[in-house]
Amino acid sequence: MTVIDDVDVDPATARVYEHGWQSWSPTRVHGVRETSARPEHDWQHTMRFRPGTPLAADGFQAEGLLLVEARTGEPVRVYAATDSTLDVPTLRARLSGDRLVVATDAPDQVQVSTAQTLGRGLAGVGDSIGRQMGVVLRRPPTVWCSWYHYFLDVTEPDIVENLDAFARHDLSVDVVQVDDGWQACVGDWLDLSSRFSSIGALADRIRDSGRRAGIWLAPFIVSEHSRLAAEHPDWLHGDAGTNWGGALHGLDLTRDDVRDYLRESFARLRESGYDYFKLDFLYGGALPGPRVRDVTSVQAYRSGLELIREAVGPDGYLLGCGAPILPSVGLVDGMRVSPDTYHPDGPEGGMTTLRGRPGVEARAWQQGRLWVNDADCAVARPAFPLREEWLDVVDRWSGLRSFSDRVADLDAWGLDAVRRLLETGPDAVPFADLPDAYRR
Asked: Domains in the chain, ordered, with CATH?
């Protein structure tokens, strides 16, 4: 690491904005005396931080963007990546007495500037990146997602039941998104699970209702249990963590055969009638290590997203999730800006905090500049004890409006809240203001 700045700070009031690698990475403002979150296990480092990048023992570690407010009322110092299409520099900041030492692994890839406040600094970075990447913004659809009620057990009849309920309850749902569970295994995108007979016929039924058909994929990772892993072990690239009862691997997105497989998978889904794609666990396309072609992990990742964009066509809507943030700019229409808020192991069992809220607020500046922000689905059924608090967060800080309840499980409050949420979504423009923490 090379020191690029040494800032005189007031330790009692100075603050640091630390931007994480991907959708689920911790991102927030800290007091300068703190140490930001660190993973407790290797799999957490892989799946929530930046794989292969060592973490400093104390202080702060950001990927591509770090801001320092040395004293209240003084200009904020902004350290930002100059070009995230090639690579993303790691930035560290550590307090030493009343000096904050800022260092990076790529000093020639970091631009240093100043802004009046944290909020203005973040907005300025967003405006600059958006212009540089030629971002094109589209008004987001409203979405119903199967995940947070049915999880992996979703069936075709479940989708149809809720499809019929939207009209009956006057819910303005544009996209019906079939989430995880439709495929035979993660990585086997040409094979259906036993709970689905025809993904094309289901899309036809959705479209016949006047709505768009959406579908979930994790295109850059592969389960060890998949047919693909058994038949093409040479396609696999790196450790992507663990989920679905086993190890996950990334794909070498520079291989022609991998690219042909992805192109065929997306083309087939597009031909079946799907034009909204939630792309999950995208970090798997940017794992470190050598590939068939000598490119950086960021270049490999972007080449995979570019392939998907081409395969789904100009009318396809791409929503990123678990995605390297800065390397995705210009290639997706919407982006999850937080980890999952609702989880099967917690909500009805006594959740006490919204783990997605800090990231949603810390990345509010990206809305309408880099893409449309997705805070995550609203969950409005009575069984979720934090539903009112979470609906307030989604209403305030999510550009993409979605919910993920079985409609039959909603009470009168839940139905009214969802109906209002779907009818009042913002356009693809920046939020009028930022959270209070960024205005000081």
From this structure: 2-116 (no CATH), 143-438 (3.20.20.70)
Report which secondary-structure segment, H or E, holds 113: strand 110-115
* 3 state SS of 25: coil
- For residue 92, count other CB atoms closer than 10 A to its CB: 20
Burial (Cβ within 10 Å: 0-12, 13-18, ≥19) of residue 222: buried
Catalytic residues: 280, 340
Phi-psi region of 134 (alpha: psi -120 to 50; beta: other; left: phi over 0): left
Closest CA to 81 of 91, 93, 69: 91
Say if pTM beats, i.e. exceeds, 0.90: yes
Per-residue pLDDT of the chain (440 residues; tens, 9 = 90+): 999 999 999 999 999 999 999 999 999 999 999 999 999 999 999 999 999 999 999 999 999 999 999 999 999 999 999 999 999 999 999 999 999 999 999 999 999 999 999 999 999 999 999 999 999 999 999 999 999 999 999 999 999 999 999 999 999 999 999 999 999 999 999 999 999 999 999 999 999 999 999 999 999 999 999 999 999 999 999 999 999 999 999 999 999 999 999 999 999 999 999 999 999 999 999 999 999 999 999 999 999 999 999 999 999 999 999 999 999 999 999 999 999 987 766 545 456 789 899 999 999 999 999 999 999 999 999 999 999 999 999 999 999 999 999 999 999 999 999 999 999 999 999 999 999 888 75
